[in-house]
């Protein structure tokens, strides 16, 4: 059975170094446990997983847009909100643990400028 070889944070992409195989009595194992590294490597942690925890199906998920905005955009790219209304914003897609930039756009003497207020801050869901 697969166990966490280290603490794994929510939204972390699981690598081979993060998991290890361990013999466990199958009668004592939780339902839907995973036993093959291929079932978890490259997936993301759906919840925090502590060192030594048996890994189950509900603990991991595929890297898809349904898992959150973080996985809908390509690595190195950013999502941008252009207008501040409920229809066009990305606010509903940002999940706790995602990293966000906060920018403010001002107009001064007919010249528009955008300033970064916060870069790479962790969203807390509040």
Describe this protein's structure.
By secondary structure, the chain is mainly β. The protein has strands spanning 2-4, 19-21, 44-45, 60-61, 99-108, 111-122. The strands form 3 sheets. Strands 1-2 form a two-stranded antiparallel sheet. The protein has a two-stranded antiparallel ribbon with strand order 3-4. A two-stranded antiparallel sheet has the order 5-6. The radius of gyration is 19 Å and the shape is elongated. The two termini are 37 Å apart. The model has no long low-confidence stretch (mean pLDDT 80).
Short précis:
By secondary structure, the protein is mostly beta strands. Helix content is 0%, strand content 25%.
Radius of gyration: 19 Å
Read across the widest sheet, the strand sequence of neighbours is 1-2
Structural class: mainly beta
Cα separation of the termini: 37 Å
- What percent strand? 25-35%
The major beta sheet can be summarized as: 2 strands, antiparallel
Q: Please report the total strand number as a whole number.
A: 6
Oligomer state equals single chain
Shape: elongated
- What do the pLDDT scores average to? 80
SSE order and pairing:
Elements: E1 2-4, E2 19-21, E3 44-45, E4 60-61, E5 99-108, E6 111-122
Antiparallel strand pairs: 1-2, 3-4, 5-6
Keywords:
126 residues, mainly beta, two-stranded antiparallel ribbon, 0% helix, 25% strand, elongated
